[in-house]
């Protein structure tokens, strides 16, 4: 009786360990497949640049159609930054530094990160859903039948469209945010306009701040686009599979953006001054 | 949506993106003032530079005439050596004095130059002889305290 109980328990424990093991193995298998997929896509990107119209159509899809949400969010983020920043800065009698605060936080961090998160949910999910549905309706297999490589024809242009769009969107987000900060800080609250701009210009450096922000946004764009096209390509060809893949794209790429941001910030901004 | 309309919108998008970047470069950062106009380098030794940083402005009469290029510590004299890149458009006499000043009470520190009366002008690689160190708040406060204590004693006598 007791022996039976014991053997049932060990069987349960064993099943649990096996489940854990298979989950870890399948995740590592997916990571390996995703890396091989990225390499294959890089090597077969020739079509995306030779027939550049394919990529331009994806820039329209990922970039132009994301403009509204990026611009409006940037404006509001900048306006909130100015309100909150002014509240704290005026306690120390240094409200002229408002421009510095708004510009540095947008250019260094918020611009690339928030634009990247919005890009992941607006464009990344759409790319995954589109490629996943193409796979589910066997359009990708049909292309292979016609000796057209679906990775070169469908996947690579979407990847490069995302990589091209993302830095432009982040730059627009930052510019719009600084304009929003100017609206609230100078026009509404009444910080001196000259001090706002001149202190900003004295503190923001082209190489250290703006260029590093651009590098960040390129890295985020590549990460989000890679995750989006891979999840779409790897999605199980069912309605449920595509919907899960879309969710995974948003979750994984948001986490990837935040983790990469930490690493890049540690590399870029903590060097000795 | 046909092709040409897409091209138009993508063109507008890319142009707007670069305009945003240009705005960040020129209006937010000051890439324009980083122009490549020729500079000459002069050095000055300070007993204490306070919080002076590389790229801090060098001002004369309130006008920015250059930037701090390098801050080093001299192992022999135990002083700080500050190298300043001055714009070639501005010439200073050789007996110019350099002070480390603070803009406002809590503002950033900069180097202030005060022209002397020498007929010879500074050349690249010259060293400014007359310098005045940064004011360290702790030293000021302790001086003030000792002085007021001494005055109290004097008043009691």
Structure description:
- The complex is a heterodimer of chains A (273) and B (157).
- Chain A is mainly alpha-helical and 273 residues long.
- Chain A starts with a helix and ends with a helix.
- Chain A is built from ten helices and no strands.
- Chain A has helices spanning 2-43, 46-50, 52-62, 67-89, 98-136, 139-145, 150-189, 193-203, 206-234, 239-269.
- Helices cover 29% and strands 32% of the residues of chain B.
- Chain B contains two helices and eight strands.
- Chain B starts with a helix and ends with a helix.
- Chain A binds chain B through residues 53, 56-57, 59-60, 63-64, 67, 92, 94, 103, 107, 165, 167-169, 171-172, 174-176, 178, 197, 200-202, 204-206, 209-210, 214, 273, and chain B through 3, 6-7, 9-10, 12-14, 16-21, 23-25, 27-31, 33-34, 53-55, 57, 106, 108.
State the major sheet of chain B.
8 strands, mixed
**CA radius of gyration of chain B:** 24 Å
**Quaternary structure:** heterodimer
Strand content of chain A: under 5%
Uncertain segments of chain A: none
List unreliable stretches of 5+ residues of chain B. none
Q: How many strand units of chain A?
A: 0
Average pLDDT taken over every residue of chain A: 90
How far apart the termini of chain A lie comes to 72 Å
Which two chains have the most extensive interface, and how many residues on each? A-B, 33 and 30 residues
The average pLDDT of chain B is 83
Count, helices of chain A? 10
| Helix fraction bin of chain B | 25-40%
